[in-house]
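User: Just a sanity check before I run the rest of the batch. Below are the structure tokens for the first item. I only need the designed sequence back.
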């Protein structure tokens, strides 16, 4: 019998048991989009937050996206993309710095972020909190795979669970890995995506 694969993420995958990690609240602070040359989008939720605004105000402003997933989501929304990172915030800094200093960037961000930002204008457009689904989840001592896709997914999981020696742990990237308890062994894909995490599962 195949051991269960638990995916702690906002996005599901057909080969895993999906545990939604976070619930979101969206804000709508006043933004003068006409001041900016580029947007910075580091999550699907930042794109969802844009839906609260008049599309004509921002849809022609090209966005720098943190990953292919965010890029595809923003393009499906009708947005233009001027660059894509490899899934980490640090990937975006060299791209930002390669443009003239007089270019104006707007970072649409969460209330709490794992990094230090990008040294550009930023506005908080959403916040996250642990979902009731993950808070009610209880892991026994079964052999299983745990896939964590964000620092928050680990933080919320650990509120009511511990990672046992029977659990194979996979994290989506370096930033997420930093939030694991010390001495927990893990694997990580070379590309930051849920699809690549699933490929690493030791059946």
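Assistant: Here's the designed sequence for the first item:
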């Amino acid at each position: 019998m195949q051991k269960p694969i638990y995916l702690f993420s906002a996005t599901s995958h057909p080969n895993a048991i999906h545990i939604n990690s976070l619930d979101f609240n969206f804000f709508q602070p006043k933004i003068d989009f006409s001041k900016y040359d580029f947007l910075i989008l580091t999550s699907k939720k930042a794109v969802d937050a844009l839906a609260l605004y008049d599309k004509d105000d921002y849809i022609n402003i090209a966005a720098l996206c943190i990953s292919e997933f965010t890029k595809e989501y923003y393009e499906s929304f009708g947005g233009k993309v001027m660059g894509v990172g490899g899934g980490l915030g640090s990937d975006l800094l060299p791209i930002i710095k390669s443009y003239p200093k007089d270019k104006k960037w707007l970072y649409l961000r969460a209330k709490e972020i794992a990094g230090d930002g990008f040294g550009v204008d930023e506005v908080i457009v959403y916040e996250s909190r642990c979902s009731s689904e993950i808070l009610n989840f209880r892991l026994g001592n079964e052999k299983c795979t745990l896939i964590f896709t964000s620092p928050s997914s680990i933080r919320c999981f650990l509120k009511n669970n511990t990672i046992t020696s029977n659990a194979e742990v996979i994290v989506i990237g370096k930033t997420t890995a930093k939030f694991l308890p010390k001495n927990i062994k893990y694997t990580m894909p070379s590309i930051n995506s849920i699809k690549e995490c699933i490929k690493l599962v030791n059946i």
